[in-house]
Amino acid sequence: MVSNAPHAVAEVVASVPFTLTSSDIVADQRAPLSLVFDQNDCKGGNRSPQLSWHNAPANTQSFAVTIFDPDAPGRGWWHWAVAGIPASVVKLPSNASASGFLRKIGAVESRNDFDIDGYAGPCPPQGKPHRYIITVYALKSADLRLRQSSPSLMFEHEIRTTALSSAQLVVTYGR
């Protein structure tokens, strides 16, 4: 019976899910003004959210984060894509995009659908609130062949082809 104990523990550890949390947002709630875009009709802080992830697969080589609005007209709207986050990094501070934190750790950011490099917060048209899907990906590669300012769709393709696992949070915002 003693020889079965380690096996039972291994099964419990293996079933722990990869998760994403944030001290800046509450899942399925309205995004705070600090994260909202700060151009055009939107007047927010435009700060990328604090994010922490837990229980990534053991063979993770790097991480990527995206924020996508599936409710925008057409194919949706990319607000942020960042890749090349080292496997040793398991959290991003608030405002990681504008503060230079991502550059310091060697990560690269896409050009979002506002035609800006880095993070651009929620700013939907007047009407029904939109959902913003925040996803962290555990990747099986540390080299995605992505450069700063490449389009978000290019980031999405490279991220998805190397993803081992992902975790999500969803927030909403409407005007």
UniProtKB/TrEMBL annotation:
<protein>
    <submittedName>
        <fullName>Phospholipid-binding protein</fullName>
    </submittedName>
</protein>
<dbReference type="InterPro" id="IPR008914">
    <property type="entry name" value="PEBP"/>
</dbReference>
<dbReference type="Pfam" id="PF01161">
    <property type="entry name" value="PBP"/>
</dbReference>
<dbReference type="InterPro" id="IPR036610">
    <property type="entry name" value="PEBP-like_sf"/>
</dbReference>
<dbReference type="InterPro" id="IPR005247">
    <property type="entry name" value="YbhB_YbcL/LppC-like"/>
</dbReference>
